[in-house]
Amino acid sequence: MNKTLWKNASFWMRLLINIIDFVLFALPVSIIYYFLVGNFEHVMSLNYYLFILFSNLISFILFILIPIILNNKTIGMLICNVKTINQNNLSKWSKIKNVIKSSISSFGFFLLVSIIFLSTIYGNELNEFKKYINSSSDIKKNSPAKFVFTERFIVTITSIWFFISIINYAIIIVSKSKLGFYDFLNNRRIVYNKPFTQYEVNKKIKLVPIKVNNEDIIHHN
Hints:
The protein is mainly α.
């Protein structure tokens, strides 16, 4: 019986997939930010909350809804003809839970940042917070404590996210199996969507004859 085999995606392929997914998220969010927040000297509270709502909706669609519909594949994976396979056969609900776990570093991270903003910076304080971000360090010393906390907390969790991402890529590079930290966490493999069999592998193996020089055999009494 020929078992179906899958080749794990390379580091460069996975990096390309992540770049595509990031661009697909960052581009619409940047456009929404420009029209709702960045293009105004004085931002209305409604615009602030609409930006948070729409940006998280985009994140949910890209990193939760679409992977559920496409069987744990993002748009980047679909474009690059790559898929996710799990080490164990999973039920439908387990696959949905895996999608949610896989989105911790994308949807989960952005949702956490949004919750922090909504909890500390209210709509009527956004303009003051924008001035705080653009001000010098001397002026920041006399700013409200929650502005300082919000900035430092966002910088801290972003740095942690970046560090974990670097570690994940480093593991993929040095690992022969091309599996990263998140792959072990979710018990999954990111593979090329081109299955093959052991028979096909064996067909590619060629036996090459090697010339061996005859040596004289000396018998000792």
